[in-house]
Specification:
Layout (H helix, E strand, L loop, with lengths): L7 E2 L3 E4 L6 H7 L3 H6 L8 H13 L6 E8 L5 E11 L2 E8 L8 H15 L4 E6 L4 H9 L3 E11 L5 E10 L6
Parallel strand pairs: 5-6
Antiparallel strand pairs: 1-2, 2-3, 3-4, 4-5, 6-8, 7-8
Length: about 180
């Protein structure tokens, strides 16, 4: 890890590489019903699940395809959530994020997504995208406030835990788009 990891901050939130002691905060956050509803996290979500999550996300810095950050409070260092960038092609990346229940409604996810989008565009990506569950209106609002445009509904994009098809709403930001 080390030299290739980055720290991004706007003075309110800081994005930094995951640390082993972050697992306790991840465990607490992933007990939330909305995180379990909208993300493919294990159920039940155990302390071992949290340790595995942190270890995998730390390893994202070992290659060039993935970049994962803990979203933290810039003042206190408290872990507020997670955001990741997944390279899908040389010019295209996909984002995913979650925010702990106690940190919602404060603009945390929007700030984190803006930081990641700006950083990714500066790194040469042209198309940034993310998708949400059709019922996850809050996540869609985050994307739009961060400058992403709703691109449309993709039918049967995912499978739920039971193997049933689920639709997804896609949001996109292309280099050169007018600011959010």
């Amino acid at each position: 890890m080390g030299a290739r990891s980055a720290v991004l901050s706007d003075g309110v939130v800081t994005l930094r590489a995951w640390e082993p002691n972050d697992a306790a905060a991840v465990f607490r956050a992933c007990q939330d019903a909305d995180i379990q509803r909208f993300l493919p996290v294990p159920r039940p979500y155990t302390e071992a699940s949290a340790r595995d999550f942190v270890a995998i996300r730390r390893a994202d810095w070992d290659g060039d395809e993935e970049r994962s950050f803990a979203i933290t409070d810039a003042r206190t260092g408290e872990v507020l959530g997670s955001i990741a960038r997944h390279r899908r092609a040389a010019h295209r990346a996909e984002f995913g994020y979650w925010v702990a229940a106690q940190a919602r409604g404060r603009g945390v996810a929007t700030r984190a997504l803006r930081l990641m989008a700006d950083w990714s565009l500066a790194a040469g990506f042209i198309r940034l995208e993310l998708f949400t569950h059709p019922d996850n209106h809050a996540s869609g609002r985050v994307a739009e406030r961060a400058g992403f445009t709703r691109e449309g509904l993709r039918r049967a994009w995912n499978l739920d835990r039971d193997g049933n098809p689920e639709d997804a709403i896609f949001f996109v930001l292309v280099r050169g788009d007018p600011p959010g």
